[in-house]
Protein 1
Amino acid sequence: MKVFWTHGYKQTSIRNLIEHTGVNFHGLYGDFRNKRQLFIKSLELYQRSVGAKIARIVEGVTPDVEGINTCLIECHDFLITANGHSGCLMCNTAIEIGSSDDEIKGFVSKNTEKLSNAFLVPLKVMYEHGDIQQKPKSLASYLANVVYSIALLVRSGRDKRYIKDYVNVAMQAIR
């Protein structure tokens, strides 16, 4: 998973995979039909591990504006330490592969939907208390994409101060 996360699907060679996994060529193809199949398994692992961790960060948010802000900064901190400056495998995959592969597009969409649904819980509470005026579902989708944007900024090597300023501007949309 980390090889794809760092180099992307297209830039990851079979040689990279063999070097980083310690499995020989025949073993790699014995377990997986091809590089794409291994990539799909990596996306599944990412969803169960990293994606689940990010969702837990969001699910633990305090249902107020400051809680959402803190959550976004925590997502940044997690993404920068989870695999260096590689950002988010799902975000990277969305950019690299886009809509050219329906199965992989499905993984990205499922991950985004899961993240959006995690944001929906505190946003509904905030809406019910009159803390926000916008519809929670729209804001949840927006905030999931803010997390993806943070991941892109991490991948590009932007510093924390820059990302914090970005989060501050993004937060104005929910105030």
Protein 2
Amino acid sequence: MKSTAAKRYAEALHALARSNMRSREFLEQLEAMAAVWRDNAELRVLLTSPRVSLDNKRRVLAAVADGLGFESYLVNLLNLMLDKGRIQMIPALTEEFRNLDDQASGRVRARCQSARPLTEAQMEALRAKLIKITGARDVIVDLKIEPRLLAGFVANIDGKIIDGSLKGRLERLKRSLVQKEQER
């Protein structure tokens, strides 16, 4: 769920976090809030219900923020979002902040699939290969096991697919053979 408002909020919060050299802490707190939001349907209903007074919503939000040890800047932003009726944008805000933090740090995220679990050495080799391909300073790999790949891996980085799987190679070979057959 992308929104320009979430992006603007994220940009402002990220600028503040970077100026205080606290980006990592802010991101961790946003991710904690997004997890609470995702996992607690009662909280979502309460904070978005027009039947609950703004004062009661603020008290609940303050209790959650206090329990999670949030920075006052983040509490202020969440209260602003509550006031503006945009509290449901917490997941989008978190995603936008994470993207800004990754961009500022020269980091990319790769959603990868592998035919089988990778050892630590294989995971590091994959990371190194993806760093070389992308030119990023760091790559965070989110690995899922997909036995249908047969061998190798497939990586998706910002919509760019890198297919190093045996299944992909076999499909490319098949297309090449069919194309050569059709050219005859």
Protein 3
Amino acid sequence: MKRIVTVFALLGLLYGGAGMAHAALSFDFQFDTTPDATVTPPFVGTGTFSFADMLGDGTFALNSLNNVVFNFTFGADTFTAANIVSSSTSVTISNAQQNVIFAGNGGGPSGGSLDFRNDANSTFQVLTFDPIGGPLYQAATLSSPILAGTYGTSPSAVPAPSTMLLFGSGLAGLIGWRYRGTTKA
């Protein structure tokens, strides 16, 4: 029995710890109203962009990323991955600069690198990102732009829940093994 507990504890620690390198990557967004390449308060919108791949620096097709999640909020108006109307968007990740930029001709109706449309929103139905890969965005009604400004990002790695469960079970097994060994002595 002691060998079985030891084997499970070691497997949990080995595979759980190794799995943490494949955790999701998440970027937090802040939107201001000054289109000057610096993000300054007051912020009119916030959001997150995350995916399940742990990538280095480079440019990647948005549709090649796994488990993509978008959640942008401007007051009561929201934009999610279900609201994307662009057909092809590139994502440029710079870990050194700790940011992400959407680039390329996304093929959406607003001509941005990444276009969202949510007709259920009361104020802003369209969110579009700079087509030349800069840090600019526009939030608009269906007929005219209302907000234009700069967005900034900051990354944070998010461990996958199953990885943490596996790591935790291995750690619990080692603690149990150690505790069981001290009670019989």
Protein 4
Amino acid sequence: MNHRVAGRKLGRTTEHRVALLRNLSTQLFANEKIQTTLAKAKELRPFAERLVTISKRGTLHARRQVARHIHDRKVVSKLFDTLSARYDQRPGGYTRIIKLGPRRGDSAEMAMIELVDSEGSEAVEPAEAAPPKKKKKAKATKKTSKKTTKKPAEKATKKTAKKKTAKKKTAKKKTTKKKTTKD
């Protein structure tokens, strides 16, 4: 039993793993949404949420604690100015993990981790409501394409039937020629 063993090693040394989490969290706060493997996303979540919680204090000491892990000054200022104000009334749960399915090359389970209540996630929802009008048009084109596909299919069956009868006739001619030459 693995009592008191928390976290994933991700196949890396401690220094490499910490550097990975620092880089992922920097990109998460800069872009507010990143795509990575599910295991990395699950490890990143508590790391990044801890940094947001520290940034909500707003003190110089908190800024230095966050700057220990995030080396980009623009991202640190964004975290303290915009993100901490956004999550001021929220008692935790600043990130969301969405499973994306397996990666094509090695079938690794992929996930998207994003900040909750970000501008990018709000803009996606209204765009999803608009496409049903386009789907109706697509259905109409499918109906017309079905009608056109039936006619060539019928022609193709007629052509294959003609080819089969032509092959039978040539086969008969060859057998009759062989019989006449033997006589």
